[in-house]
Amino acid sequence: MKDIEMCSCTFCGRPQKAAKKLIASPNGDAFICDDCIKICGDIIKEEETKVKVFKDLVLPLPKDIKKALDGYVIGQEQAKKVLSVAVFNHYKRINFNYHNKQSKKGKDDSKIALELEKSNVLMIGPTGSGKTLLVKTLARILDVPFACADATTLTEAGYVGEDVENVLLKLIQNAEGDIERAQRGIIYIDEIDKLARKSENRSLTRDVGGEGVQQALLKIIESTVASVPPQGGRKHPHQEMLQIDTTNILFICGGAFVGLDDIIHKRISTSSLGFNANIKNSQEKAKVDYSRDVQPDDLIKFGLIPEFVGRLPIITGLDNLDDKALARILVEPKNSLIKQYKQMFKIDGFEIEFDDDAIAYVSQKAIDLKTGARGIRTIMETRMLELMFDLPDANVYNKIIITRDFIENGAQPTLVKKVEENREAV
């Protein structure tokens, strides 16, 4: 055995004289100092903390999740309920399966343990109805990584476009490289209806942007260990890959599905033929409740492949937003556009106010554009740009009132001088 006074730490190289304590291995060939022992202890403690966070994931109840969503999303009550229950059950399933596996360790595996399966979600609703906002807000409430992808940019592997695995890379990046955390995240794939086959008959040519992408998405949506290029882009044989298990990733798909209501009405009207059928005007269509009325066959006739439909068992619909809902969206949410403008102008030393007629005009104009809540920002940004470019003198004015005439015709807003405001206060 070596003389310990002549030895140094095998890990950091510090000599025995510089260390408070130097501990030898049983055979005396290796040594570790007190500082390295402390560092090892901290690493182990950090890893234990990560595991504890996963095991003891505390979930708000569905009612609490919906209440939190109410602060950011106006209307869409049914969709909020469905999503609140879906995400609650998803993470409850993760906790159950984890504890179930832990309790089965070292025991007889001859009996198959009960394992709760994942239920992904399909949201059907017009553009601008709040699909992306709902999912993004859910991820923020639950404090889990979130990634959003547009299905129209995805193609099959080997074709020009974006590989479906790159969606997983976005999730890893948003989890700051923590793959364990990314494996419990949420992925939202928008415009999923654009992947539908153009007809029910299979084409002889490759459908690299439609059915082919549906096939490519099947594996990652269900449960697989995917290989992801760390820098994105195309895979090549000598590239080092990141491995990510998609078993516990919740996939939520959304789309407008224009024409799906016609397929549903046709099925319902065909099945109700007979003496007891309710005869209605052909132009009069009952409103479709997608959560209740849509059947897997309807989605297959629309152009989604049966395997893909089977992996999205939870379906909810979002309603068109009327002018009253759009007016509320402008004002009520915690991050509403008007609150954002008020904060931006406050930084420049101005108080800004929007009168009721201006709000009513913006919401009605957004209805005319037929782009839902997205139209609100388009209208507002167009007019507010000019005002922000040519701000009034902050030494003279400190309040700006936005009127309908300003939004509709580009007239000057009402400006309130500091002296006038002080006089009103007296």
What does this structure look like?
- This protein is an alpha/beta fold and 426 residues long.
- The protein has helices at 34-55, 62-70, 77-104, 131-142, 165-174, 179-182, 211-222, 260-271, 290-293, 296-302, 306-310, 323-331, 337-347, 356-369, 374-389, 404-409, 418-425, and strands spanning 22-24, 31-33, 121-124, 146-150, 186-190, 225-228, 242-245, 250-255, 314-317, 351-354, 397-402, 414-417.
Task: Give the helix/strand layout.
Elements: E1 22-24, E2 31-33, H1 34-55, H2 62-70, H3 77-104, E3 121-124, H4 131-142, E4 146-150, H5 165-174, H6 179-182, E5 186-190, H7 211-222, E6 225-228, E7 242-245, E8 250-255, H8 260-271, H9 290-293, H10 296-302, H11 306-310, E9 314-317, H12 323-331, H13 337-347, E10 351-354, H14 356-369, H15 374-389, E11 397-402, H16 404-409, E12 414-417, H17 418-425
Parallel strand pairs: 3-8, 3-9, 4-5, 5-8, 10-11
Antiparallel strand pairs: 1-2, 6-7, 11-12
Write a brief caption for the model:
The protein is α/β, with parallel strands linked by helices and 426 residues long. Helix content is 44%, strand content 12%.
